[in-house]
Amino acid sequence: MKKFLFIYALVFTFIWTGYGIYAVITDQPSAGLTLGFGLAFSIIIFTASWFSSWLMSHYKKIDTMAEKIIGKEQKKRNA
Distances from the Cα of 30 to the Cαs of 9, 69, 77, in angstroms? Predict the structure, then answer.
């Protein structure tokens, strides 16, 4: 999933940043705003992708800890 999120973020980064650079080169109206939006969007989507993978790794750790605790409780009840 981490690879998918990275590729997804990379594709949209290229699209928005590329269009912003194109707008600046061709001197379109609001070109700076478009480029700024593209850069901000890129930063946000990469940060969200990183945060998502970080959060999922911590959920996995907590899930394994919970399984150990629940397993110990089941053994105590059965004994």
Answer: 24, 58, 68
- Compute the radius of gyration of the chain from its Cα atoms: 22
Per-residue pLDDT tens over the stretch 10-23: 898 899 899 999 99
28 phi/psi in degrees, rounded to 5: -80, 155
Element (H, E) at 43: helix 31-78
Burial per residue of 40-49, b for 16 or more beta-carbon CB atoms within 10 angstroms, e otherwise: ebbeebbeeb
pTM flag (> 0.70): no
Burial status of residue 38 (CB atoms within 10 A of its CB: 0-12, 13-18, 19 or more): buried
